[in-house]
Amino acid sequence: MIAEILAVGTELLMGQIANTNAQYISKRLNELGIGVYYHSVVGDNPGRLKNSLNLALSRADVIITTGGLGPTQDDLTKETIAEALGRKLVFHEETYQGIKAFFEKINKIMADSNGKQAYLPEGSIIVPNPNGTAPGCIIEKDNKIVVMLPGPPKEMIPMFEQTVCLYFESRTGQTINSRMLKVFGIGESEMELRILDIIEAQSNPTIAPYVGTGEVIIRVTAHEKDKERAEQLMEPVIRQIRERLGSFVYSDNGETMEEVVVGLLKKEGITLSVAESCTGGLVASTLISVPGVSEVFDRGFITYSNEAKIKELGVSEETIARFGAVSRETAEEMVSCLVKKTGTRAGIAVTGIAGPDGGTREKPVGLVCLAVSLDGEIVSHEVRIAGDRDRVRHVACLNALNLLRKKILGL
Amino acid sequence: MIAEILAVGTELLMGQIANTNAQYISKRLNELGIGVYYHSVVGDNPGRLKNSLNLALSRADVIITTGGLGPTQDDLTKETIAEALGRKLVFHEETYQGIKAFFEKINKIMADSNGKQAYLPEGSIIVPNPNGTAPGCIIEKDNKIVVMLPGPPKEMIPMFEQTVCLYFESRTGQTINSRMLKVFGIGESEMELRILDIIEAQSNPTIAPYVGTGEVIIRVTAHEKDKERAEQLMEPVIRQIRERLGSFVYSDNGETMEEVVVGLLKKEGITLSVAESCTGGLVASTLISVPGVSEVFDRGFITYSNEAKIKELGVSEETIARFGAVSRETAEEMVSCLVKKTGTRAGIAVTGIAGPDGGTREKPVGLVCLAVSLDGEIVSHEVRIAGDRDRVRHVACLNALNLLRKKILGL
Asked: Which long-range contacts (CB under 8 A, 24 or more apart) does B250-256 make?
């Protein structure tokens, strides 16, 4: 089966947003064994939409549209496609009640225009939308499949995962089976060197590395009839990759670094406090993005100025004067003062030069010193991070969390 | 002039990357007064590329391609398009020397395959690539313009800005002139109501509102021959919008809320400290993303637990017991204790329920209490924010910064 993704929305042609829906759907269709040959984007214009639909029908078996399902005059994907396929729009009571219930839930009054969203092409399979008012639908006609989904990713993605995937799985006899290994602390090229033979020897599962900010992600995807067989195929390959990459692999199920660290803290019952200079709250904020973190996260100090390091944490003036505010010695003293003060079992301290100014020959922009304390034992680490201020701070934060992860795991 | 953007690359169809190039180019072309009617994406397949090019030539005046200009066998955009347009590829000595010099600069050996990149369609305008080896080119034929650019954004964007923009400016006699008004604290629909007549009455400049996370952006774009005249057209419209929206407009030059706040603090010589509960360092971290913030940002406390609020800031147990940790009273006491402790002129305190758990009937998820202190005067504010944990924290942070902005400006 060959698919084409057709996005509808003038905001895409104005450059207000990127077509991330096409990326998401493409990735998932490829994993299902459905090849994607074209993406296209048109504005909220019925004539051009109709032409693009007909073109897509002439060259693909599956057409997935995103956008144009809203309640306003501009939203005309459903009307245009139904007409092009010769289907009437019919009122769907259950969908109408669902839209009504949605407005009640969010405590807003339902506008008359939302009623239009309860009309769907005759004979179509309805794709419920748990996070919005616009339902999607699947139309089968003359061996072609047209799937219409709304534009907002937070609505589109759950609908794709919960309904559209199952639909294609049942048609293709395959399930989406993929696992994401998250790798930190090793460059992409070195990582590839270490596992190139594994990548090249494999066809099922496939192994695809790609680069995130400061980390590498390896997606292992098995094409199999059921989840169990897929796991059986993936398991030895994942084990092999883990053996080659050792402690650089911090997750084999797609978890973020902060989820892994918060998970470890909760499992071991370890409380944590942080002291941050250049990251300025980013380490704390990243950890606090994980729900339920309050069990283990106690408090944090953003000691941006030297005075704050001295006054709030109790770092000695002498240490800063002798080694500098950005030094392993200062980071170590920050963390030891921190845990003494807060009484938490674990602590993280970060100090560095995020740029764009403030660098010197000996201590250039991107130099970051990190220290971690666990039950009185302190480890520290110095890294040089390339990139702009945001990247330095982001990668410094990942390094700090990774240092704590390794300390907890005894790596 | 009508444009179509044609991206070439199997990695886009595999979902490995999003087509951010199309977004970037669309935005710039719209600003130049060139409408974009279609985006399309094809893989590294000469047949499908040729078909897509011919289709684009049939429905657009300008076709901009991205991708497929590299040195490998897969990269065939230039060859395919040159053939379709009946142009020979000819060796270009200056480009060859440029590629050689590029490899010398980055201290790498030039592969034979890179030589192929010095061949360009006969009679084309060369678009130099200062950040890579693949030059781009512009072909004019039969009133159509085809522009080929490489795929990596860090190469494509400078080439577009330095060469392609000037080319279109000279053809259209227009320059890019737009200003972004940033609006916070008013819903999109209420804002539209207030300025709908201004939007509808205007054709030059055009006024386009769009929705960010928790804020609204209004782009005012003038199509004029030079910057000065464009400013003259935009100025009265921007003034009119500002009058209607008052203090909801926090920037009329595209600055972020944190840039505006740090700018005000620096201008007035006001030092700042922060105390955060539910935002957990996000307010500090957002401020610290602005270069040069160290002049004004002193320190921060992440007092996530009640104990931390009491011990680190000195909030009284009684206040928390009586009004709750999430209350205006606690937020006010947090900020008053904070500035007493740190001695900064300004302070921000945030406490709230970010979810997904922890809400009650009286204090639901999304309730956030904020307080700001400036030279001993305290103001506080209570907001209810819809959405998930990340959105609650992000919008809480914007609210906190906005409260400080308004206090400094006496609004």
From this structure: B250/B182, B250/B183, B250/B184, B250/B402, B250/B405, B251/B180, B251/B181, B251/B182, B252/B179, B252/B180, B252/B181, B252/B182, B253/B179, B253/B180, B254/B179, B254/B180, B254/B182, B255/B182, B256/B182
B178-251 classified as CATH 3.30.70.2860: yes
Closest-CA distance of chain B to residue A33, Å:
11
User: What tens digit of pLDDT does each residue of A311-337 get?
Assistant: 999 999 999 999 999 999 999 999 999
A289 to chain B, any CB pair closer than 8 A? The answer is yes
Q: B105-132, pLDDT tens digit by residue?
A: 766 778 777 888 899 999 999 999 988 8
Taking the mean position of all CA atoms in its chain, how far away is CA A34?
A: 23
The alpha carbon of residue A53 is apart from the nearest alpha carbon of chain B, in Å, by 13
Q: How far is A14 from chain B (nearest CA, A)?
A: 5
Mean pLDDT in residue range B171-194 = 83
Contact map slice: A 81-110 vs B, CB within 8 A: 106
Report how far residue B106's alpha carbon sits from residue B128's, in angstroms, rounded to the nearest whole number: 17
Of B279, B291, B393, the CB nearest to A389: B291
- pLDDT at position B176: 65
What pLDDT, on the 0 to 100 scale, is given for residue B63?
98
Chain region(s) in chain B for CATH 3.30.70.2860? 178-251
Cis peptide before A205 (omega within 30 of 0): yes
CATH level 3 topology of A2-172: Molybdenum Cofactor Biosythetic Enzyme; Chain A (3.40.980)
Instruction: Please state, for a pLDDT cut of 70, what percent of chain B lies above it.
Output: 99
From chain A residues 205-234, the ones with a CB under 8 A of any chain B CB are 208, 210
**A354: chain B residues, CB-CB within 8 Å:** 288
Rounded to a whole number of angstroms, the distance from the CA of A408 to the nearest CA of chain B is 23
Task: Give CATH 3.90.950.20 domain extents, chain B.
Answer: 257-409
- pLDDT value for A250: 97
CB contact under 8 A, A389 and B289: yes
Q: Does domain A175-251 have CATH number 3.30.70.2860?
A: yes
- Which residues in chain A touch residue B304, judged by CB atoms under 8 angstroms apart? 288, 294, 297-300
Domain(s) labelled CATH 3.40.980.10 in chain A stretch across 2-172
According to DSSP, residue B174 is labeled -
Q: Domain spanning B257-409: which superfamily?
A: CinA-like (3.90.950.20)
